[in-house]
Amino acid sequence: MSTKKEEDLQAVNVEFKNDSSLFDKENIPASNWFRFNKVGDKVSGELVSVKEQPSTTVGFPDQRVFTLRTKDGKLMNVGIKVTSSYLMARTESVAAGDSLGFEFTKEIPPKVKGHHPAKSIEVYHRKQQTPVSEE
Fold it and tell me: Is residue 80 in a domain?
């Protein structure tokens, strides 16, 4: 014997499954992960948050993930591998509200023949401007 709550949930599930228009390709949200595809690609915005994200794929390092609010108001994630001491040192002092940018500046030839070239990423950082108090 089912309860009223269970019957209501079943009705919602049937209604949801029957909404085939939801499953159109046009309803798939765009990724909010920035990809550095070619030299010159860059992204910037106000830093919303920073978190360390463990790798879920064997052979790939953990990442430091920066969530930026771009000028158009969209949230964009930028993942940087934590094994890059250069980038980790340059992002150690960032804080929410700061302006932060990343630019793909050049490709570095692979050390192992047949591997992809490494991507050289530069970080741009400007501390949040604090208003001067009037006294």
Answer: yes
- Going across the sheet that includes 42-53, the strands are 75-81, 63-69, 42-53, 99-108, 118-126
- The count of structural domains within the chain is 1
Residue 97 lies in a domain: yes
Tokens of 68: 């930026």
pLDDT at 130: 67
- Note down the domain range covering 79: 29-126
Q: Is the pLDDT of residue 3 over 70?
A: no
Quick: pLDDT tens for 68-119: 999 999 999 999 999 999 999 999 999 999 999 999 999 999 999 998 999 9
Q: What is the CATH number of the domain that holds 55?
A: 2.40.50.140
Could you tell me which of 103, 41, 126, 34 has the C-alpha nearest to residue 74?
A: 34
User: Which phi and psi (to 5°) does residue 120 adopt?
Assistant: -90, 115
Single pTM value for the model? 0.73
- Whether residue 77 lies inside any domain: the answer is yes
Q: DSSP readout, 3-38?
A: -HHHHHHHHHHHHHHT-GGGGSGGGSPPP-B----S
